[in-house]
Design brief:
about 190 residues; Rossmann fold; elongated; six-stranded parallel sheet; binds zinc ion; 2 domains; 4 helices; alpha/beta; Wheat Germ Agglutinin (Isolectin 2), domain 1
């Protein structure tokens, strides 16, 4: 049964906050409610199996890998009523218009993504997506240093906090990410 009206729901927060787990939970409930669901994810996310969205705790749903926001509309099937978009921060800005268009058409759109990058600054399309959404849930992870609620993603390169100006990819470096609170989040700038 189609929804009476469409909407955008954003689930956001730092790495390890359980965003993808929450997306999977909502998608499963929609399937139980006999909604037709499609989940999309950027091709850049190759952490896990090619055609699935997987949470850190191991649960997963089927997902369609796409290169850009335009491809989402091309691969969207006619009778779909619920669309999931995982790791939205990696998509081009056009993904916000696509999500809005689908919501205007009456679809329920569930979007997950990191709200900030490792510097603690707005990540790609996410601020605009949050502004366009009917509902936003910002989840907290647990700070790996002090155990408080964590809202930031700490990037470590060879065991040390990544510098503010470090490139996104450092060839040959051992990279690691941790959830950190405001106090423990370190971004050296000099
Ligand atoms: Zn902390």
């Amino acid at each position: 049964m189609p929804h009476h009206f469409g909407s955008i729901e954003v689930v956001t927060g730092s790495m390890f906050c359980g965003k993808t787990e929450e997306l999977i939970r909502r998608v499963r409930r929609a399937v139980i409610a006999k909604q037709k669901v499609q989940v999309f994810k950027p091709i850049i996310d190759t952490r896990y199996a090619y055609s699935r969205v997987k949470s850190h705790s191991g649960s997963d749903v089927e997902a369609i890998p796409i290169n850009n926001s335009k491809e989402l509309l091309e691969k969207l099937e006619d009778d779909v009523t619920v669309v999931g978009i995982d790791e939205a921060q990696f998509f081009d800005d056009g993904i916000v218009d696509v999500a809005s268009e689908l919501a205007d058409r009456g679809l329920r759109v569930i979007v997950t993504g990191l709200d900030t990058d490792f510097r603690g600054e707005p990540f790609g399309c996410m601020p605009s997506m949050i502004v366009k959404a009917e509902r936003v849930d910002k989840l907290n992870a647990i700070c790996m240093k002090c155990g408080e609620d964590a809202s930031r993603t700490q990037r470590l390169v060879n065991g040390k906090p990544a510098h503010y100006n470090d490139p996104i990819v450092i060839v040959g470096a051992a990279e690691l990410y941790e959830a950190r609170c405001r106090r423990c989040h370190e971004v050296p700038r000099d």
